[in-house]
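Figure-free illustration: sequence to structure, shown twice.
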Amino acid sequence: DEVAGLAQAFARLLATLKEERAREQAFLALASHELKTPIAAFRVGLENLLAQERVDREALKRLKVQAERLEALAENLLALSRAGAQDLRLSEVDLYALASEAFDRFQPLAVSLGRELVLEGAPVKVAADARLLERALNNLLQNALLHGQGAVRLRAGRDAEGAYLEVEDQGPGPPARAREGLGLRVARQVALALGASLVLVPGPPFRARLRFSVDSASSPRLSPGATSSGGAA
């Protein structure tokens, strides 16, 4: 019995190591795929500028956009790695305040695209990693503005099932069998790390909702996905 128990323990350990190895390979493949195109475009743009005698400001603006895209990709890959490793820095986060900041950041993009961006909801506090949650929300908003349709509504609130953050647009959403992009994958991994969930509701309207679990408001400690002692304001 002892030998059998030891063998089973080794078998479980081997299975865990194989899963970790598979996740590592998938992460490296994803990083390589996502970074290859913008890095190549950035390099070509720099080479073209170096070949010119005068500074082309329009070309510099395009390179700035590429640099911003690379920065976002790096932040997404870092968030994916941190969430997967459960490297969390929990604090009390007001979802409505987080949504308000995202609203201000993305309003210029919405205006440039001729899209309406609306903020709705009320203050509600949860225990979460603010930086990871901000990255997940950025991804949902960017997807809605770049790939969705009509007005985009950003909501934060609380209902019978608990606290939530939601991004809604008037399009149908991604096809059911479509492979999730990096943005949605990061949002889903962040939700998992925080003890929350990412729910995608096909449209129109299409909704992407980060749902936080209900927990005792009097709990003395902050646990991932739980409502903090601050409760809803």
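We now fold a second protein in the same way, so the two outputs can be compared directly.
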Amino acid sequence: MKSKIFFIVTALLLGTVSCDHLLEFEPGDVILAEDAIRSADDLQRLLVSNYDVLANLYGGRVQIVNELRGPNFGAPDNSLDFTAVYNRETTFFTGINAGIYTDFYYAIYRSNVVIENFSIVEDLADADRTRLEAEARFIRALCHWGAVKMYAKPFGYSPSNDHAGVPLRLAPSQDPLPRASVREVYDQVLADLEFAAANLPDQNGPYATRMAAESYLAQVHFLMSNHEQSAGYASNVISSGLYSLDGDLDRFETDIINPETIFGIVSQPNDFRSSWFRDNLRSDNTSNPQLAFSEDFAFFMSLSGAADGRSAWYTPGPRALINRFNDKEYFNIPLSHLTLMHLIRAESLGELNQDLSTAIADLNAIRARAYGTGNNEIGSDAMAAEIIAAAREEYRKETVCEGTWIDQLLRRGASGEPIFIRGAPWDCPGVSLQFSNSETTVQGFELNEEGGCL
């Protein structure tokens, strides 16, 4: 069965929206419904422009910043913003974390404009309204979830998760808001994704689909340690038959559709969608790239030896250079993919101590691709603890540079494991990014503690 892949694409790539009056708005502009929305087509175009904001976020910016918060990357070469993140010393003047925060809320704002203005469009069919709301809520969920992971302590940090999260914006307003609790943010993220999963179509061109929503439900529940739900949603995606594991260890493809991608960004020449990866990580276009792997990650990879095909992703040395993106000027960026679903299901089943044969099969499918069929397999009699350890090992390898390993370490720390990240405890001040300077004008807004971790 041919895989059906859906990508976030830029507005200009969609043909039908170039030069439209909606896209004359800069991302931060207030969008007045009476000016911008006159028809069902206008709502669709506004939604498309929102996918564009999402693509600007996840074209490498969010991924790189999250890797700098964790143990996979070493100290940056000379970037002051990267160094502030790496040293856990961001302030509300640090440009990179302020820009990411602002863009998360640009996308949330535009989603809310779509949701709140169906009534002013006379030619909107019920089916189109439902789909548009589902897509807008999908984007809103991804941005609230992305923000709360970067700017707040993780789910599980407090017994009731009543610790400070991020502002929860459910209306198209720029009025100041306090930080909602992490529990409130996660509850809304789940509600939005559940609505999206129930109302998105199976096929939706380049936009969000039912399987995209379910793949994110698997990820969110996994961070909440709701293992039964994470395994169930991951199984739904895996069993859909729409996706297949690629055979060459390269999900970041150029010009072709990777069969694993459930949701991602498509990059083309001159659109700069993957330039954050290209300009900061590639080791073949500079002798001293801005970013390289840490000694810790290089040692971790060396334990597998040259037999592991993923060893080609780095070059050992005083700085362990990153080769994963070499020889590519532009490439597609997967955000949710089939490998992730297999690894989430495997660890979740291990945590539940249920259906271990399925978990073993998930892990051996990943290892067969990396080592060759029949090599380094997990035995059929493996116990739950071995499966969990193997799933975590494969997760770190497979998702390096994708910006999600830090989330797994924080999840485990919040669950009671003695997790240290580059010599500091997982919950030390500075792991969470500081908020944008714009929030300092909100009376009583609780900023994150500053000061690093050493």
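Summary for the second example: The chain is about 45% helix and 5% strand.
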